[in-house]
Write a structure and sequence with these properties.
TIM Barrel; 367 residues; single chain; binds zinc ion; four-stranded parallel β-sheet
C-alpha cells in the first residue's frame, strides 16, 4: 500500500508538467468573457487545477458507496485531481445511522491508485465522546479503543478521521472532547506507531467563550471550552504522530487566524493543515477576497510550504445546483506559485501519508 502510494505520487509529479499547458489553456478559455451562444456554457464550465492535486478530505453517501465512488472517479478529470480521500463523519453513538469505513472500503479498494479511505469517525470518535460523557478512560476502554483502531488499519484505512474535539451541530450532533483526552493521546501513539495521520476537526477556541452569534443553543452549548492549550499538549505528546488540523480557511469562531496557524506550525513540526474554503458559508478568516488569496494566507502557505494540503470537504455525489467546495479551492490553488502548488498538491501528501516519519525510521529512508 505504501509503495503504491509512493509510485503514485511520483507518477503524478511527472505527469503534472506535461498537462499543465493544456490545462492552462482551458483555464484561460473558461476565465475569459465569451460572446454569443458559448457564454453560458463557458461560464458554468468547471475550472480544473493547473497541476494535479490530491483531494485529502471528502465525504460520501453511506447509503450509496458505489454512486459516491462513481461520482468521485468522474470528478477526478474535471478537477485535475489525482486521488480522492474519503473520510467518515465525526459521529457519536447517540445518532442512529452512524457508520464507519467498512461501508466504503470494499468499493474504494477497487481503485487503490485513485481512492483512499480514512476511518474511525464512526467508531473511535464516538468512543471518545462516550468516554468524555462517562468519565471512564480506564484500561478496559483503552484496550477496546486500541483494538478498534488496529482493526481499521488491518482493513486498509490510510489514516484516522474525521475525528473531532469541537464540532458544531450539523449532519452530526454537537461534540466536544478535550484534545488531550487520554484516548486522543492513545490515538496519537497508535498513529505514530503505524505511520498514519490523524485528521482532526476542531473549531479554534483559545479561551472559553460564548457560542458565536448565528449558532443556535440548543443544540449547541451556550459556552465553548478553551481548546488550543490542550491541542498543543496533544501535538507535543508524541511528536512522531502527524496531526492534520482540518479546515484552515473555514473558521466558525473567528480565532482560526493565519497568526494562530503560524504560531502553532512554528511550535509543532508534526502539525499539518488542510485548506478548505466553502463558497456557500464563508465563515470567518476566509482565505479569499474578490476571488484573490488574501496576502496573509499566501504568506503563511509560502512560509510553511511543507505543511499544507488540500482538503475541501466536498461531498460525493456532488450536491446538485450549487457551487462545489472543490471549485473554490482549485481557484485558490491556481493562484499559487508552481513550486508551492506542487508541494501542496501532491508532495506533502507523500510526507504525511507515506509511512513512518524520518525520526522513527532509525536511519532508514522515509518516503
Ligand atoms: Zn469537519
Ligand atoms: Zn469533513
Amino acid at each position: 500500500m505504501k509503495r503504491s502510494l509512493e509510485k503514485f505520487v511520483k507518477a503524478v509529479a511527472l505527469s503534472g508538467t506535461a498537462i499543465v499547458a493544456v490545462l492552462a489553456a482551458r483555464v484561460l478559455i473558461a476565465g475569459q468573457p465569451q460572446s454569443g451562444a458559448g457564454k453560458m456554457s463557458t461560464e458554468t464550465e468547471p475550472v480544473p487545477a493547473l497541476t494535479p492535486y490530491v483531494e485529502a478530505h471528502t465525504h460520501f453517501d453511506d447509503k450509496d458507496p458505489e454512486g459516491s465512488v462513481r461520482s468521485a472517479l468522474a470528478a477526478l478529470g474535471r478537477q485535475n485531481a489525482s486521488k480522492i480521500f474519503f473520510l467518515t463523519l465525526p459521529d457519536t453513538f447517540d445518532r442512529s445511522g452512524s457508520f464507519d469505513a467498512e461501508v466504503m472500503l470494499p468499493t474504494a479498494k477497487k481503485y487503490p491508485d485513485k481512492l483512499a479511505v480514512l476511518g474511525g469517525g464512526g467508531s473511535l470518535n464516538p468512543m471518545i465522546m462516550k468516554s468524555v460523557a462517562t468519565g471512564d478512560a480506564g484500561p478496559e476502554v483503552q484496550k477496546k479503543f486500541r483494538e478498534r483502531a488496529e482493526e481499521l488499519l488491518r482493513e486498509g484505512v490510510v489514516g484516522f478521521g474525521e475525528m473531532t474535539a469541537e464540532h458544531f451541530d450539523g449532519a452530526t450532533p454537537y461534540q466536544y472532547a478535550p484534545a488531550d483526552h487520554p484516548l486522543f493521546l492513545l490515538l496519537a501513539d497508535i498513529a505514530a506507531q503505524h505511520g498514519v495521520p490523524i485528521d482532526l476537526h476542531m473549531e479554534a477556541v483559545p479561551e472559553a467563550m460564548p457560542l458565536p452569534a448565528g449558532l443556535k443553543s440548543p443544540p449547541n452549548p451556550p459556552e465553548l471550552h478553551a481548546n488550543i492549550a490542550a491541542f498543543e499538549r496533544l501535538l507535543s505528546h508524541n511528536p512522531r504522530a502527524r496531526i492534520i488540523w482540518a479546515h484552515a480557511g473555514s473558521d466558525g469562531t473567528g480565532f482560526r487566524t493565519p497568526d494562530l496557524c503560524r504560531r502553532l506550525l512554528l511550535a509543532h513540526p508534526n502539525l499539518y493543515m488542510e485548506i478548505k474554503a466553502d463558497p456557500l458559508t464563508h465563515g470567518k478568516n476566509y482565505p479569499l477576497a474578490d476571488g484573490k488569496i488574501k496576502p496573509e494566507w499566501l504568506k503563511l502557505f509560502e512560509d510553511f510550504p511543507d505543511r499544507f494540503i488540500i482538503g475541501t470537504d466536498q461531498h460525493y455525489p456532488e450536491p446538485k445546483d450549487q457551487q462545489q467546495r472543490w471549485q473554490e479551492i482549485v481557484l485558490l490553488f491556481n493562484q499559487l506559485p508552481a513550486d508551492l502548488r506542487r508541494k501542496i498538491g501532491t508532495e506533502n501528501i507523500a510526507h504525511i501519508y507515506g509511512g513512518p516519519s524520518a525520526s522513527s525510521a532509525k536511519g532508514g529512508k522515509a518516503l
